[in-house]
Amino acid sequence: MAIEQPATRPANPRFSSGPCAKPPTFDLSKLAGAPLGRSHRAAVGKEKLLSAIEGTREILGIPAEYKIGIVPASDTGAVEMALWNLLGERKVEMIAWESFGAGWVTDVVKQLKIDAEVKTADYGEIVDLSTVNPAHDVVFTWNGTTSGVKVPNGDWIADDRDGLTICDATSAAFAQDLPWQKLDVTTFSWQKVLGGEAAHGMIVLSPRAVERLESYTPAWPLPKIFRLTKGGKLIDGVFRGETINTPSMLAVEDYLFALDWARSVGGLQGLIGRANANAEAIHAFTYANDWIENLAADPATRSNTSVCLKFTDKRIADGASFAKAVAKRLEAEGIALDIGAYRDAPAGLRIWCGGTVETSDIEAMLPWLAWAFEAEIAAQR
Ligand SMILES: Cc1ncc(COP(=O)(O)O)c(C=O)c1O
């Protein structure tokens, strides 16, 4: 028996967790003001880069005394810059509960060869954050994109800590409240929550992180692309838009457009509200259907951006191929693109819910997910 297809389709089937959907009002003509073919060090270029920095500060509510820089190599570049510049001064705790956090553990333990205290949890779970020692530096991911598990809040970070907190917030910034007073280094990329272009990262430094940079020199060499100090002083220009190397002015224009769009939906609170509404629509769907569950065990840790789901129906013979087949069926119908779980994550789906996704598209997609599930169960017989 053919299973009937739902009547309504999402207007936009893009639910990828990165690069993420562009803002709904985007089209290429919005980038016509990009100073293409001009130097990024000319006044026009510098002005655009500075306004990307200050627009970020305004929307994310970053304190005036924090430094914000645009750096190469996207979020990865920003995180590695932090690890290579700052670590080694004191004991380090690495906490990880999914693939990207695990990647930072590898960097610190295997590449930098730091004798770090490593704390991990399985996909769907989170490390006991209360065990973090405020005398240590700690490296963690605010929102684990590949497991859909986020830290619930920053209450576990001591205000009077001696160590630095280094936070990969790439799938949290612009979707979740980040307590800046608790974060010494925060990184994210343009390609995530605001649907910007890839390859550009941002690094946000607290005064304590700057103090460490100016007072500590790591034992290892630093390539030019990572260097944030010269002669023991912060290279201040980087934090005014004088980038270390050449940025794409088209990507800068695109980010400025995304910031404008963010303002138009009510800034940070508007963006958080949009992501929450998207994630809530999926949560309601999982509560209503006993064959699918959120991968994040504790509701307080459930992401509102990278929502990860697992199939729990006993009739499923091979979980990995079932999940892939569901994702493929939805892609083939033009209903949902790129929603298979991350390659290192447990079998399932990952549906991006950041603010650039319209709730009406999530709501139109979900009945199709039920349709694809039933069709695959039938195909197994
Ligand atoms: C938590 C996390 N960290 C790092 C990255 C790497 O980001 P990029 O490819 O922008 O460097 C991603 C990308 O999905 C991520 O989700």
TrEMBL record:
Reactions it catalyzes: O-phospho-L-serine + 2-oxoglutarate = 3-phosphooxypyruvate + L-glutamate
Keywords recorded for this protein, A-Z: Amino-acid biosynthesis, Aminotransferase, Cytoplasm, Pyridoxal phosphate, Serine biosynthesis, Transferase
Enzyme Commission (EC) number: 2.6.1.52
Gene Ontology molecular functions: alanine-glyoxylate transaminase activity; L-serine-pyruvate transaminase activity; O-phospho-L-serine:2-oxoglutarate aminotransferase activity
Pathway assigned in UniProt: Amino-acid biosynthesis; L-serine biosynthesis; L-serine from 3-phospho-D-glycerate: step 2/3
Cofactor requirements of the protein: pyridoxal 5'-phosphate
Domain of life according to the entry: Bacteria
UniProt similarity note: Belongs to the class-V pyridoxal-phosphate-dependent aminotransferase family. SerC subfamily.
Protein name: phosphoserine transaminase
Organism (species): Tritonibacter horizontis
Gene encoding the protein: serC
